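Below is a filled-in request sheet from our internal design queue. Each sheet records the structural input a requester submitted and the sequence that came back. We keep these sheets so that new team members can see what a complete request looks like end to end.

REQUESTER: design group, bay 2
PRIORITY: normal
MODE: inverse folding
CHAIN LENGTH: 183
BACKBONE (tokenized):
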């Protein structure tokens, strides 16, 4: 199964805002970014999946398919009370504590809980008989795909830089053998 993982396009939000699962509007460059992305994709997919947040659905709904589905399992990490706050306004002791073990410390959810929700999606997807799949989602979800496939320890996951509008091609199978990533 070939999977195109696509991060949503740029956002219209101030820098350094923790937005996680919050609804955030797309930047005015959306139309241009969308057209550039669509030129790199197949003319049709067996299935298109999307995070239910509008920053993903607006792009996902433009990708040609006969099967489109939104899934809450493709949401970004829930940062709880931190959502909408400037990272610099979060109390340093709280931020340092979370950063010391972001895998296990729960804000709205812990990263390990997010990992299990996304891996559940991956395993269910791989049980299907799709050949070409597009998934429009968030940087955290894409990092989890890589962590699962490449067995990267979650504590190292933020070393992976995932840009707005980036497309990653994964060739997957259920046994994780002969899987590959084209960056």
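RETURNED SEQUENCE:
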């Amino acid at each position: 199964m070939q999977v195109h993982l696509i991060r949503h396009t740029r956002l219209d939000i101030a820098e350094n805002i923790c937005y996680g699962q919050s609804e955030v509007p797309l930047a005015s460059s959306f139309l241009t970014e969308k057209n550039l992305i669509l030129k790199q994709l197949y003319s049709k997919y067996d299935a298109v999946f999307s995070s239910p947040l509008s920053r993903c659905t607006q792009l996902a709904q433009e990708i040609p398919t006969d099967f489109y589905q939104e899934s809450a399992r493709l949401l970004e990490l829930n940062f709880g009370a931190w959502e909408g706050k400037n990272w610099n306004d979060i109390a340093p002791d709280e931020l340092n504590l979370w950063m010391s073990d972001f895998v296990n410390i729960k804000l709205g959810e812990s990263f390990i809980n997010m990992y299990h929700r996304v891996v559940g999606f991956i395993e269910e997807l791989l049980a299907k008989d799709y050949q070409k799949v597009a998934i429009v989602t968030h940087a955290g979800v894409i990092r989890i795909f890589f962590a699962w496939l490449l067995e990267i320890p979650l504590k190292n996951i933020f070393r992976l830089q995932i840009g707005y509008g980036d497309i990653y091609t994964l060739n997957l199978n259920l046994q994780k053998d002969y899987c590959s990533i084209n960056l």
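SHEET NOTES:
- Strands lie at 2-7, 47-50, 68-70, 132-137, 167-171, 180-182.
- Residues 111-126 form the longest helix (16 residues).
FILED BY: M.R.
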